[in-house]
Amino acid sequence: MKSVYLDMDPGHDDVLALLVALTAFHVKGVTTVAGNQTVDKTYRNARRVLDLAHYEAISVHQGYAHPLFRPLVTASHVHGSSGLDGYRFHPRTREDEILDDAQMWLASEFLHEPDPITWIATGPLTNVAAFLMGNTHFIPHIERLAIMGGSLNKGNITPYAEFNFYVDPDAADWVLASGIPIRLVGLDVTHKALLSPEALERFLTWGSEVGTMLHDIFTFYFDHEPDAGPGGAPVHDVLAVAAVAHPEFFSWQPMNIRVERCHDVHRGQVIVVPGSGVDDRGVEVAIDIDVDRFFSWMWEMLDPYSR
Ligand code: BDR
Ligand code: CA
């Protein structure tokens, strides 16, 4: 089974990404970043979900509390004040043991990693960029980085920008220019993959605690995600997991892209560099998705939580 490292800011849709990654891959550990909420909360949410799903042995490591060069903007309008509103987790004593060592942990893990590294990032790219800036010698060892972020068309936090790229455009721009082989999954495809309202009932029929948690958090998410509608709500982050597990679910286009860092109004917007199409920096951008194949795989990966 392929090993992966996860960097995330849970976050309702990050939770789905985490649960699917746990059954699809060997997850080596999770680093958390500030984004949907402050980093203490995204850390706590990751820890709580792993414990609830009986993955207590997977370690969580807290990373950056704010973007590289800017104040933090959170998405509490989507994810609530906890970052994962909708479900009341049982208090656990382990939550007090915060490991705020993401950068050190990654360095030690990557140093001892015998295989080429696969990394999946579903929050602002602060941890990833900071790590790579300080550890450029690891860049050749990264086989693939799958990212949920950006949009070739309209944004979701501004008319131009997707949330993860908006929060830390400096990190996003640096990572995309790093030369690492990247699969980028943005709103152009995540807005096609809608979790239907019937899925909420399906979670409940499982009769498991994970099913109840997913039902409750996604009930909240359906009411708060601005792009949710009668057809359902976009699942965003789990598509970055699918991009590693099943790239054939997507249509990919090599592109040379940057992220706007300076202009206030266009902050975080994806810019396709003129002459793009000659893939000189390794960024493959998802431009379409086979939604039916993706969802049937997603439910298969979630099946172990139904018991
Ligand atoms: C992204 O922003 C966050 O709110 C979600 O978790 C996802 O990573 C979608 O724009
Ligand atoms: Ca996220």
From TrEMBL:
Signal peptide: none annotated. Residues 4-295 form the Inosine/uridine-preferring nucleoside hydrolase domain. InterPro entries: Inosine/uridine_hydrolase_dom, IUNH, Ribo_hydro-like. This is Nucleoside hydrolase. GO terms for molecular function: purine nucleosidase activity. The keyword Hydrolase applies. The keyword DNA repair does not apply. It comes from the Bacteria. GO terms for biological process: purine nucleoside catabolic process. Keywords: Glycosidase, Hydrolase. GO terms for cellular component: cytosol. It comes from Sulfobacillus thermosulfidooxidans.
